[in-house]
Amino acid sequence: MTIVRRFLLAPSFARLIRKERGSQRVTEGYFPTQSGRNSHVLLDGNQCHLVLVTPEEGIASEERTEVPRAHADALLDVCAGRTVYERARIAVGGGREALVDRITHPGVLDLVSIEFEDRDEAASFLFPAWFGPEVSADASFDRRALALEGVPAVGDVPLTNAALEALLDTLEDRVARARFSAPAPRRATNDTSVIDALRRLASPDPAAAEAAPAGSGEDASARALPRSNFAARGETGEAQAAAEGETDPDARIDDVIASLSQALGNQSAPAAPEGSAPTMPDVERPVTRLRRFGA
Prior knowledge:
This protein is of the alpha+beta class. It has helices at residues 11-21, 69-78, 119-124, 143-149, 161-171, 174-179, 189-202, 206-211, 220-223, 227-232, 237-247, 249-268, 284-293, and strands at residues 3-8, 24-30, 38-44, 47-56, 59-66, 81-93, 96-105, 109-116. It is built from 13 helices and eight strands. Helix 7 packs antiparallel against helix 12 and helix 11 (237-247) crosses helix 12 (249-268). The longest helix is centred in the C-terminal third of the chain and has 20 residues, at 249-268. It is globular, with a radius of gyration of 34 Å.
């Protein structure tokens, strides 16, 4: 058994919610009441159901039977009336979800509703400030009545700054959003190893700094000679790279970039024919050259 509390909603609020949360088109076709029971056909995305509703002491009990799409389309052709609406879902706290409906047929109307399992839950619910006037007791706002009798006349729903602030707070609730969204896909293992290497490069190892104390006898200025000094002494590029590898972080950066280039080349390059010599990816050479001979 389900109890529904229904409220009017300002059109601008409904539009903002659909923009932030997305929506799905729903079509319902209603048949005349027979033997005190109501029935309608429901098309919600790729799902089609025939719904039988039996009122019991003011509470509606639903039974749903899945039907093929062709049968649902045939039932829609012979129904007495239908409603078409765009439905969005938004968390409103306490583990509850509100259904925001922008009805487009047979008229235009914006409603927000929440379903409850029993009367006590429904009575104790404190609706947010961005909800409009409640119309739960007015049967003309039931979707069945809308389909068979049309949309009743509704004035402007009051808009206040407090209501807008409350809606924005709800939309920006990251915890509620995560509850109704799929988890992000995990990164590949190769990507993680490269990122870890870059992080280690960005954070110098304090143990290496402690291994060479200030009074170790090595001249710090000699270890940190600029590249121009190597060129003035006529030292080769290999000697320069070896000297820089001791203290200059550029050599470590070269190694990481070369490894990254190699990994990217292995992933994107086609497999080499059998018997041919392996070739280095083209992306490694210009990157290494720029790092080695750059100012």
